[in-house]
Amino acid sequence: MEDNKNILERWFEFREEELESGLTKEDKNYMYDFERCTNTILEIVNGEIYNSVRKELDKLEEQILRSMEHFNKKYYIAGFMDALEMLLKI
User: Fold this and answer.
1) In terms of pLDDT, which residue wins out, 18 or 39?
2) Separation in Å, CA 76 to CA 18, 80, 85
3) Do 80 and 15 form a contact (C-beta atoms < 8 A)?
4) Which one-letter DSSP state was computed for residue 22?
5) How many CA atoms lie within 13 A of 87 on its CB side?
6) Within a 13 Å sphere around the CA of 33, how many CA atoms are in the beta-carbon half?
7) How far apart are CA 45 and CA 47, in angstroms?
8) C-alpha distances out from residue 61 to 50, 53, 55, 56, 74, Å
9) Given CA atoms 72, 78, 83, 87 in this order, what sign does their dihedral have?
């Protein structure tokens, strides 16, 4: 089982790189523009707290992206393993 997980991990990394380089116009429509959102918020922030707000927004973006990556990876691998299991039962 551990060998299967390692194979799936490598496959996931390969697919992730491949998918990122081949985004369609439709895919790009679903991407959230963190930079635009950050800039909009920072335009109304007082100079004294600007840097701390910027830092928190950067951390928020990183946490959201890590969370998305974690759950995408988790469900992609689970679905792939389910498909393999079904094929092996045929």
Assistant:
1) 39
2) 15, 6, 14
3) no
4) T
5) 6
6) 7
7) 6
8) 16, 12, 10, 9, 20
9) positive
Our measurement of the distance from residue 87's CA atom to the centroid of its chain's CA atoms, rounded to an integer in Å, reads 28
The secondary structure element, H or E, covering residue 48 is: none
What one-letter code names the amino acid at 35?
E
Cα angle: 86, vertex 88, 89; to 5 degrees: 65
Decide: pTM greater than 0.70.
no
CA distances from 37 to 34, 41, 43, 44 (A): 5, 6, 10, 12
For the ranges 3-17, 19-33, 42-56, 58-72, the lowest mean pLDDT is seen at 3-17
Positive or negative, the Cα torsion across 37, 39, 43, 44?
A: positive
